[in-house]
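#struct-help
A.M.: can someone run this one for me? Single chain, 270 residues.
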Amino acid sequence: MIEDEINRGLITIVVSAGGGWKVEGAKERLRRRGLSLARASSSFLQRATPHLCPINKVHKSSSHDTTLCYLRRSSLIYLTTALMASNKVPVYSTNDLKSTSDDALLPYLTNLPAPYAFTPDHSKSNIRFVVGYSAVAIAGFTFYADRTLGWEATTSPWIIAAVATYFILNTFLTYWIWAVEAGEVYSGKRKTGETISVSSSAQKFSSIYKLHVVYKSAAGKVLQDKRYEAPFTTWFSAEGIFHPEPFRSWVASEIDVLRLAAKQTEKKSG
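D.P.: on it. Structure tokens below:
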């Protein structure tokens, strides 16, 4: 078992701040045994959750005298990804496959090495929430007025105005979701000003995952506007287990800025 080799100190897995897994001392053992690095890391990190240590400090496991070293900045991100990998997704549910893939974009794009990391931009989702909750508040208010003041009160001008506002907000919300957000699952900005927008889609009963990526310069010039697609089987096993490394590799191979970030990560991890 890979866990036994880790516990015996034959394999040490280090999570780097730049992203990706790094196996120290026995990478060839993984290759010889044909083991997936993502699978080994996922299984190991779930067992090692209580042993997360501060940045640049080494922790010795009391039971196995194994050196476990993590960098605080990325450990939580990768633990989240590891837990995602341990949960099975119904392989015939396109919606679940798409949602799991979408959720993997956020930790990946926000944990890229400097200066490629993106900070999430929640402005569009914030507008959606404000409009949606406002409509719900108006609906609740008119329902309360009907229940407490009676039918006659609902014919007053302010109730009619509230109902009209409710329908206007819902119409705007529908437009916002379908025309403005348009399937956007991630929007972020780099410290240097470049922005990225990633939208995803997958047709019902289809095994194809589609991405639309728009990458702009700080001045607003479109640097990349392309659409990509790949089968879910590229990063999901036959049992429905999500494997983050193949997913990241595919995304990085298609998006220019992520390709550059991946090269820098490889240089740092040796």
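A.M.: thanks! The chain has nine helices and nine strands.
D.P.: also worth noting: The mean pLDDT is 74.
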